[in-house]
Amino acid sequence: MRKQIFAIGVFIVLLSSIVAWFQFASSSTSFLSALLNSLRVIIIVIVTLFIVYAPLMMLIRKWWKKRSAKLDMRNNQQAKALNRFIKNGNALIGATTIFYALMLAIFAHIIAPDISPYANDQINELPYKQPGYSILILKQPLELKPEETNFGEWLIRGKKVSYRQIPIIDFHFAGDSIYAIRFIGDGIPGQDLKFEMAEITGEVNTRGRNKALIENKYITQRTFILGTDDLGRDYLSRILLGIRVSLSVGFVAVFIALFIGIPLGALAGFYKQYPPAVKISKSKKWLIPVDGGIMWFINIIWSIPTLLLVFPIVFAFGQNFYTIFIAVGITMWVDIARIVRGQVLQVREQEFIQAAKTFGFSDTRTIFRHILPNITGPVIVITAANFAYAILTEAGLSFLGIGVQPPAPSWGLMISKYKDNLITEPYLAFIPGFAITTLVLAFFMIGNGLRDALDIKSRL
Question: Average of pLDDT values for 279-284?
Fold first, then answer.
């Protein structure tokens, strides 16, 4: 595990050094100051990684040590494979990363500072604020009795924001009113605002009660951990909700690819040597070229670039969420079909398959009950890799502007939108780029770990 942590630390050092160089080149900050800021970021990230990853990995390995002591590790092949996977540090780091990503995706609206749908609450006075920027916020209610949002809707879609956020420099109370200086921009004189305290609280209370309510509930010191974008939206919230888009594309696209690829690959492999026959007459039969037809179709799909397959689907059905997922899934089934075909060609010659034919089992039962369960290892490995490819494909489509559309937060769309800000605000493109890299790398780590754990040669 030390090697993995060291490798991640080196990667973060290089990334932080690049960010520090951009910061030095784009502002009046001295190189030494930029370097010190970069080192501070490195230390914070490394400590955070250790706190986040080490306890869970140690807990998993401790649990497995107790669990494996009760199992027959000599004859239990599944236990052997799981043991190899858990002992593989890279695979365990990848699995831990995906676990945290799933948790963040599920509870994104609850964890995110911006609770609005798509994290789209805009504070127009605060565009392009650096990470860690902090300011006072006055919440001005827009409705006297805001509509309540149940927990399920909050978890899935977020909450409707029933107040307007006004950044302020200072405030004070006088009589039954609150006076505030509105923040308009750096170096620009603020605007004087006046509100009746009852307008803010929406209640008829004593002056002291209203003052306490406003100070505790309606005026807060808000810190934008990852800064804001061009519309003043909280960037951390947008990044968290972007995990949902990436993982959703992965799940739906891989499901579609498995649904199409496994049956076609299994049929092609099973009927390669003994194709089904259709009687034309009493003395003539027509052998259906199942394998030849399917492989011809696979080769045609394989030869068409991914974008050329996606464009017609997107333009025909619109740039909706489900359209992008289906388009990505349709472009990925070919790999699975070829892998399944090759595995079926090997397994169908085994003695137990010949015994199934002798007993008179149907071809459908032989394929789905006896062949497919014995080729799950390679299918699982290619599925993990396809998750990564689906995330990259969605990010690429969004980068080109034909993927997920605003205001939905997509990491590829963020990179496309802020690629011209690499000199002035490099974090806007680097953060989603780092998120894509981390998630894709985690799936590849899992895929490599599964390949090593399920390798038939290592079971001997």
Answer: 67
Residue 192, SS3? strand
- Is the pLDDT assigned to residue 29 strictly greater than 80? no
Q: Which of 428, 432, 423 is nearest to 398 (CA)?
A: 432
C-alpha closest to that of 238 among 431, 19, 41, 23: 431
Buried b (16+ CB within 10 A) or exposed e, 85-123: bbebbbbbbbbbbbeebeebbeebbeebbbbbbbbbbbb
Q: Which residues of 199-232 are buried (b: 16+ CB within 10 A; e: fewer)?
A: ebbeeeeeeeebbebbeeebbeebebebbbbeeb
Strand, coil or helix: 222: strand
Contacts of 247 (CB under 8 A, 6+ apart): 101, 102, 105, 391, 439
d(CA 254, CA 325): 9
- Give the C-alpha separation, 87 to 6, whole Å: 18
Task: Report whether pLDDT(26) > 80.
Answer: no
Query: Residues 168, 136: contact at Cβ < 8 Å?
Result: yes
What are the percentages of helix, strand and coil residues in the chain, rounded to 5? Answer: 65, 10, 25
The model carries a pTM of 0.85
**342-372: burial string, b at 16+ Cβ within 10 Å, e else:** ebbbebbeeeebeebeeeeeeeeebbeebbb
The Cα 214–Cα 192 span in angstroms is 18
Report the alpha-carbon angle 307-312-317, nearest 5.
Answer: 125
> 42: burial class by Cβ within 10 Å (0-12, 13-18, 19+)?
middle
Annotate 259-269 with b (16+ C-beta within 10 A) or e (fewer).
ebbbbbbbbbb
Instruction: Give the single-character DSSP code of 272.
Output: S
Residues ≥6 apart with Cβ < 8 Å to 14: none
Query: Average pLDDT, stretch 73-78?
Result: 78
Of 457, 102, 88, 431, whose CA–CA distance to 246 is shortest?
102
Q: What six digits make up the tokens of 247?
A: 């993982």
Q: Where are the beta strands (DSSP E) in 99-162?
A: 133-141
Please state, in angstroms and as integers, the Cα–Cα distance from residue 100 to each residue in 44, 108, 157, 254, 284, following that order: 18, 11, 20, 20, 62
CB 429, CB 418: distance < 8 Å: yes
* Peptide linkage before 312 cis (omega within 30 of 0): no
Say whether 380 sits in a helix, a strand or coil. helix
Provide DSSP, 39-99.
HHHHHHHHHHHHHHHHHHHHHHHHHHHHHHTTS-TTT-HHHHHHHHHHH-HHHHHHHHHHH
Which run of H or of E encompasses 166?
A: strand 163-174
CA nearest to 159, candidates 90, 210, 108: 108
